[in-house]
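yo

u said u wanted the structure for the complex thing, so here. seqs first:
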Amino acid sequence: MSYSSEISRNNPGLFIFMVDQSRSMSHRIGGGSRSKAVEAADAINRQIAEIINRCTKSEGVRHYFDIGIIGYGFKRGQAASLLSGAAIVPITDMEGRILRTETQKQVIDDQEVDYEFPIWFEPVAASDTPMVQAIQLAISWVKSWVENHRESFPPIVINITDGESTDGDPLTSLASLQGLSTSDGNVLVWNCHLSESKVHPVSFPYAEHQLPEDRYAKMMFSMSSELPEEMIAIAKEEYENVSQGARGYVFNAQLEDLIKLLDIGTRAVSSLMK
Amino acid sequence: MISVRTYRLPKLGNSDEECEDAFSSNGNFSRMAIADGASDSIFSGVWASSLVDEFARIEGRLYDDTGQVLSQLITAARNSWYDRINWKKLSLFVKNKAIKGSFSTFLGVEIEKTPEGYITYASAVGDSCLITKNDGAINSVPINVPSEFNSTPQLIWSGYGAPFSREFKWKKPVMQKFAFNFIEGSTFMLATDALSKWMLEHRKDSWETLINTENPGEYFDLLRKRKEMRNDDVTLAIVTLDP
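structre next:
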C-alpha cells in the first residue's frame, strides 16, 4: 500500500515549502486584511514550528523530517533556498536557523502561557513569479533526496502562490516533479492559491466544476496531487465535503485555511512517526 | 503477605531511558500503581513515575475519595514532575512543548487484608488494566474488549509548566473505580495497554503463558517483532495474594 511508510530516524520524511515572493503578493488577500505575503510567511513559520513540535521529545528534536524552503520572485527571474547556505536540512538543524523569536501569549483554561514563537523567514513581495524555475529547483533537490531515501514516505511539496507564473507554463515541470517517487509512492504536490477576488474559499475539490471563476484556478487544480486515503480522513474532520479523489488544493485560503491545509499533511504523516 | 513480580520494557528500538511507563509500590505492596505516559506530550515518563511514586506514598484511600485524596495526589505529583525537569537548560522547542504539560494514564490499586482474604480497590484513568482470572476466564477493567483500546484514552494532566504555580486548578480526570474480593492465594495482573490488549485477544492461553514464562521480557520482544503485539512500552505486574 502506498503512502504508509513508517517515518523514523532511519527513514525520515521530507517537506518542501515553495513560496511565491512576487510583487503581487503584497496585495491584500480577498476578504482579508493582510497581504498574501504576510499570510504565507506566517503560515509557513507556524507550520515548521508545528512539525518540529511533533518531532520534539524530552531529550530534544528527533530527525524525523528534512525541510526545504524555496522562495521565488524575490529578484527578477530568481528562485533559491531561503535557508542560507543550504538546500534541504534536517529538522534538527532548524533551531540554529531561527532569525528571531516573538513572544506570544495563549490563554487556555483561564491560564495565560507564554510561547517563544520562532520566525525563520519574513514576508517578501518584490518582483516577478518564476514558478517554473522554483519547480526545477525542487526537482533537483527531490531527485537526489529520493535516491538516498528509497524506503521513506514520499516528499510533500507545498506551493503557496497567487498563481501567475511569469517564466512559462509550469504544468510540464510539475508533472516531472510528481513523477519522482520512493518505494512508497509518488511525490505529493499541494497548492495553496491565494487570490484577491472575494469569492468564497474552496478547499480540497475533486473536480473542476467546484472551482471558482478565476484565471488560474483550473491550472492550479490540475497541478495538485490527489490526497492519499489517510489524508482524506483527516481532511474530512476539518471540511465536511471532502470526497474520494480530492486534490491538495485550496483556493483563496486565509491563514486559518492555510494552516489547516498544511496541518492535514503534517498530521497524516505524523501518525506514521515511530 | 503480598508478592509482586514486575517487568518494564521500552518500545523495540528505544532505550530504557525512553520508556514512559512506570510502576511503584509501598513497602508491603498494599498500595501500588502503574501509569503509561502519553507519547504526544514530553516528560510523560517523568509525569507517569511522579504519579505512581506519590500514589504509593500518600495516606487515604483513593477508592473512597470525595476529591481530597485525588487533589493531594495530583498536587504532589505535579510538584515532583516540575522539580525533576531542569527547565533552565531546556532548548527552545523542548521548553515550548514541555510548558504545555505532560499526560499519563493511571491505575492505582489499594489492597486490604480481611478475615476472608483480600479486597482490592482499583482506581483507573485511561487504558492501563487490572486483569483477573475466575473459573478459567480472564476479565479486565476498565477495558474488557480489545477493540475498545484506541489512541485517545483518558489521561491525567500535569498542568502547565510555565508560569508554574504550586497552587493550580487541576482538571478533574475521568476516573473509574472497581472493587474485587479475592481468596488467599489468588493472583491478578496490572498491565499497560498493548499487553492488556494482547491478553484479551488471546484469552485462552495468555494468562498461563505469562505466569509460566521464565523471561517475559524476551517473550514481549518476540511478540512485538512478530507484530502480534503493538510496538509500545510494556509494563506488567503479577500480584499474588499469599496466605
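The first strand of chain B starts at residue 2 and ends at 9. The longest helix of chain B spans residues 68-84.
cya
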